[in-house]
Amino acid sequence: MSKVVVMDHPLIQHKIGIIRKKETGSKDFRQLISEIAMLMCYEATRDLKLEEIDIETPICKAVVKELKGKKLAVVPILRAGLGMVEGMLSIIPAAKVGHIGLYRDPETLEPVEYYCKLPEDIAEREVYVVDPMLATGGSAAAAIELLKQKGAKKIHFMCIVAAPEGIERMKKEHPDVDIYVGTRDEKLNSHGYIVPGLGDAGDRIFGTK
Ligand code: PRP
Ligand code: URA
């Protein structure tokens, strides 16, 4: 069964409070999304495996710990997931980046795929799928299904604001995927927007509305 981790770190909660405000402009919104992603990445990578290796310090021989395998990938769901990539890479700079393009049909709320480009060796990598918003869960579930079809085995999902409906859908459709959430909101409204949420994350990151 997957675990759902809601990040209660005060810095994450403080920054989420700022991006919720309607007066926060695109420049600050982008910067904060990136900072939150960095802080969440630190927490979400807590279970990465380590191995011991022999080295020499300037003083003597020593045994130190190193990440085992080191094969990670970050996969943003376009567009809004792009806003989280830089923050993730500031913590795990050697990760490769794949892209999955999905948009929600405004009528049906079903995800429509328009792009997919992944690292060739995605099947061998531990994958962090990132998207600031988990609403109905349709986009995240579809992106993860696509990754599984391409052979990815160990997948995590990170989002900043989640609706209970999205979390439940993920647990049902992808019980093997751990979910890291910045905050769990109340509900979805009749247009599929998260309440209280922060509005349309893609539009706020890119200033398109
Ligand atoms: C937003 C968001 C998620 C999706 C969440 O993207 O970034 O991908 O909606 O909703 P869901 O859980 O109900 O699928 P959107 O479709 O608005 O596309 P955009 O990022 O290109 O604006
Ligand atoms: N996508 C968003 O960007 N915001 C929501 O509240 C729901 C889906």
UniProtKB/TrEMBL annotation:
Chain residues that bind uracil: 194, 199-201
Iron among keywords: no
A GO molecular-function descriptor: uracil phosphoribosyltransferase activity
EC number per UniProt: 2.4.2.9
Notes on activation and inhibition: Allosterically activated by GTP.
Catalytic activity: UMP + diphosphate = 5-phospho-alpha-D-ribose 1-diphosphate + uracil
SUPFAM superfamilies in the cross-refs: PRTase-like (SSF53271)
Pathway: Pyrimidine metabolism; UMP biosynthesis via salvage pathway; UMP from uracil: step 1/1
GO cellular component annotations of the record: cytoplasm
InterPro entries noted in UniProt: PRTase-like, PRTase_dom, Upp_B, UPRT, UPRTase/APRTase
Superkingdom to which the source organism belongs: Bacteria
GO annotation, biological process: UMP salvage; uracil salvage
Keyword Transferase in annotation: yes
Positions of the Phosphoribosyltransferase domain: 6-208
UniProt enzyme class: transferase
Record keywords: Allosteric enzyme, Glycosyltransferase, GTP-binding, Magnesium, Nucleotide-binding, Transferase
Coiled-coil boundaries: none
Cofactor entry: Mg(2+)
Cofactor binding: number and manner: Binds 1 Mg(2+) ion per subunit. The magnesium is bound as Mg-PRPP.
Residues holding 5-phospho-alpha-D-ribose 1-diphosphate: 79, 104, 131-139, 200
UniProt family annotation: Belongs to the UPRTase family.
Biological function: Catalyzes the conversion of uracil and 5-phospho-alpha-D-ribose 1-diphosphate (PRPP) to UMP and diphosphate.
Protein name: Uracil phosphoribosyltransferase
